[in-house]
Design brief:
Layout lengths: L1 E3 L5 E3 H16 L2 H23 L2 H14 L2 H9 L7 H26 L5 H22 L3 H22 L2 H87 L6 H29 L7 E4 H18 L3 E5 L4 E4 L1 H17 L5 E9 L2 E8 L33 H12 L3 E6 L3 E11 L43 E4 L3 H13 L4 E4 L2 H13 L6 E5 L8 H12 L5 E5 L4 H10 L3 E3 L4 H12 L3
Parallel strand pairs: 4-6, 10-11, 10-12, 12-13, 13-14
Antiparallel strand pairs: 1-2, 3-5, 5-9, 6-7, 7-9, 8-9
Helix pairs in contact: 1-5, 1-8, 2-3, 3-5, 5-6, 5-7, 6-7, 6-8, 7-8, 8-9, 8-13, 9-12, 9-16, 10-11, 11-12, 14-15
Length: about 600
């Protein structure tokens, strides 16, 4: 349904109604002040003309104007009408009728007061009506019918009275008033159109803003639903993969030295690849959730670059590439683990997309900053793709999603880490020539010698060691000197995971008790106390059956039975809120699927005395 609003074109009925409502509100906004000013003007003119002419018609006109003033309550009733906004058409009609009566009263003034032979008083009447018309026009310009009702009667009355007197002077005055009337029509029409158009533009902007807000709400809702879906899907995928990883580790251990051991090794390699993919997505969730917070310190770059060289030297050699690291004695202010992850992703990406030549990593000082550059002689990146490569899951020349090329999230993580660390990242590339990534870090002064400046030498390329819980994604066996806690209580409602965990830990001489809910855990603790065999550690899943909170359950169990009991949280959760909560808890955490070696090492560290 549409309707016509002034001369602005066809608009929808709802917008037309809103425009009318605002127009009417504007018309009645000045009723009180306009009535007071008009009354003072009328009584002043009446007093002056009666004093000059002593004509009874002056008193009659004053009385007529008094009747018009008595209609003020009829107009002021608009402000007392609670439904005025819904009755805009009624009040718009009321207003132009009131203006018609008002204008007719003033149009009668020249007929009742204009003297035949007194040019001064005649000119005063012309000035009063013209001035009144000019002054009141903006107040009624919102509605064209009100403009016509206000302007026409008083000016036609004035022109008619001037023509009636018939002298040349009166004719000239009548001509100028007619010209003024035409000009007033033009001005009034322009004002009316401008005000109406401004209202339409305002409501169109408001409607557009509402639509944008609705679209943003829909987009946010879809994004939240997508996040919940991926978090749920990731959790559900991690659960069985976690059991597979643990069972696979047991098989790998049992089949070591047998002919079937090679199959077990390939099985675990596939598990590690899938675990790496899940860890990469977990990294994205942790970065987006804000649970990764940089801990800045002054560090030397040389050990870190040497560690990265150790990580990727064999991979570059397999592709026939040269990997060169120009070590340096420079120090920088950064988070060493996050910076190492960032540089490892850049180097891994450079090797992946370089077919011949090599990769160069160098660092150099530039005033109070340090440039770390990763330069390759690879395929290069076209200009229209240089921004897209930082988007999650985007890969150039991989429409078939070849899993050997990864998920396409490495550079997305690089950008997030560069923003998190406030290390600006620049990209320069030419197709078939190569690519240069430049990272700018603040220069730091050398500090006293430190140990353990880098831990990456034993991590696997592309792993999520820092962000995903420190789990090495490569098959390995525990050190013979590793001391594991025993007995251990596992609180996990997944039967397969309980069986897998029991098989793994039992093979390493650990006595494990598996319970599926908090009440059973309390009974197990009580029985262990009675048997004088208290548990040496507690492992708990984050999400238990029927939505129970494993973190809270573990805290209650420790508070009741042993506040100093070593506690390890294992979870497949990836939702930002829960990741933030896990981080804030400060407890050790491993993310499913947990690699057997990472689990054993973590348990050993939990009982190692300082």
């Amino acid at each position: 349904m549409t309707t016509q609003v002034a001369a602005t074109g066809v608009v929808d009925a709802a917008t037309a109604q809103r425009v009318l409502r605002e127009q009417v509100a504007s018309l009645f906004a000045t009723v009180k002040s306009a009535t007071i000013a008009d009354t003072l003007l009328a009584w002043t003119v009446g007093t002056l003309f009666y004093w000059q002419l002593r004509d009874p018609l002056v008193l009659w006109w004053v009385g007529l104007h008094f009747l018009e003033v008595l209609r003020y309550p009829s107009q002021a009733a608009y402000h007392r009408d609670p439904g005025a906004a819904d009755r805009s058409a009624f009040w718009a009609n009321r207003h132009w009728k009131e203006m018609l009566f008002y204008s007719c009263v003033w149009g009668a003034l020249p007929w009742m007061m204009m003297p035949v032979d007194n040019l001064s008083l005649t000119s005063m009447i012309v000035l009063v009506i013209v001035g009144l018309c000019s002054t009141g026009l903006p107040a009624v310009a919102a509605r064209w019918p009100s403009v016509l009702a206000f302007v026409l009667p008083m000016n036609i009355g004035l022109i008619g009275a001037l023509l009636w007197h018939g002298s040349n002077t009166h004719y000239v005055l009548a001509f100028f008033v007619a010209v003024y009337l035409l000009a007033t029509f033009q001005i009034g029409h322009a004002l009316n159109k401008m005000l109406t158009d401004s209202l339409l533009a305002r409501f169109e902007k408001e409607a557009l803003a509402e639509q944008i807000a609705e679209q943003m709400a829909v987009t946010q809702r879809l994004s939240d639903e997508k996040t919940r879906f991926f978090a749920s899907a990731s959790h559900d995928l991690r659960q069985p993969l976690h059991a597979i990883a643990l069972f696979g580790a047991v098989l790998e251990r049992e089949l070591e030295g047998h002919s079937a051991g090679a199959h077990a090794n390939r099985l675990m390699q596939a598990v590690h690849v899938m675990g790496n993919s899940l860890d990469t997505m977990l990294d994205m969730s942790r970065l987006d959730a804000g649970v990764v917070r940089p801990e800045l310190s002054a560090i030397p770059l040389k050990p870190m670059l040497q560690a990265i060289n150790h990580l990727f030297a064999s991979r570059a050699e397999e592709k026939g590439l040269q990997l060169r690291m120009r070590t340096t004695e420079l120090w920088v202010l950064t988070d060493p683990e996050l910076l190492q992850r960032l540089l490892a992703n850049l180097v891994e990406n450079a090797i992946k997309y370089t077919d011949q030549g090599g990769v160069l990593v160098l660092a150099r000082a530039k005033r109070d900053a340090v440039w770390i550059e990763v330069i390759d002689t690879g395929r290069g990146i076209a200009a229209d793709n240089q921004e897209k490569i930082f988007e999650a899951f985007y890969q150039i020349d991989n429409p078939g999603r070849d899993r050997n090329q990864g998920l396409g999230m490495g550079l997305s993580i690089v950008r997030r880490l560069s923003h998190l660390l406030h290390h600006p990242l620049q990209l320069t590339s030419r197709p078939d020539v190569g690519t240069r990534f430049r990272l700018t870090l603040p220069l730091a002064q050398p500090q006293a010698p430190v140990t353990g400046a880098s831990h990456a030498a034993g991590a696997s390329p592309g792993s999520a060691s820092t962000l995903s819980g420190g789990q090495p994604r490569a098959p390995a066996q525990p050190s013979p000197a590793m001391v594991l806690p025993s007995p251990i209580l596992l609180l996990d409602d997944e039967a397969d995971i309980g069986d897998a965990m029991a098989a793994l830990l039992t093979s390493h001489g650990v006595q494990l008790t598996v319970v599926t809910h908090e009440a059973a855990a309390q009974e197990a603790f009580t029985q262990a106390t009675l048997n004088a065999q208290p548990y040496a550690a507690l492992i708990c899943d984050y999400r238990l059956a029927e939505g129970a909170d494993g973190l809270e359950a573990a805290h209650r169990l420790r508070a009741r039975f042993n506040p100093d009991l070593p506690f390890l949280l294992v979870t497949g959760e990836t939702s930002p809120q829960r990741l933030q909560r896990v981080r804030d808890s400060g407890v050790p955490v491993l993310f499913k699927p947990v690699v057997a070696q990472a689990l054993l090492q973590t348990l050993a560290k939990m009982v190692t005395k300082p």
